[in-house]
Amino acid sequence: MRLAVVSSDGENVDLHLGRGSSIYVYDYDDELTFVEKREIEIKGEAKHQGGKVIKTCSDCDVLICVQYGFKSKIKADDAGLKLVMDEGPIDEVLKRYTDHVDFMKNQSII
User: Fold this and answer.
1) Residue 110 clears pLDDT 60, i.e. is over it
2) Is position 110 within any domain?
3) Whole-model pTM?
């Protein structure tokens, strides 16, 4: 599974999706591996820039950011990208998400 996080500093998930000028990409298959940093040109105070971020993450399965708007949610759904809201240090955010994924893999529905 490929995960992407929106971060201003490479240490924290700390930006709204539409302000995501830096995306950090990780692969997860029982352990987390950093893949790369991707830069996106975000224009100042312009609105509705989440589409640029979603397009940049087209090879990812999950994109984690502090917040996202309704239009971005629709674009992400259309692109097959799961949006998740969380914030804090990247390592903690990714651990929370991967722990949840691992937990859900081991659940059986009665």
Assistant:
1) no
2) no
3) 0.90
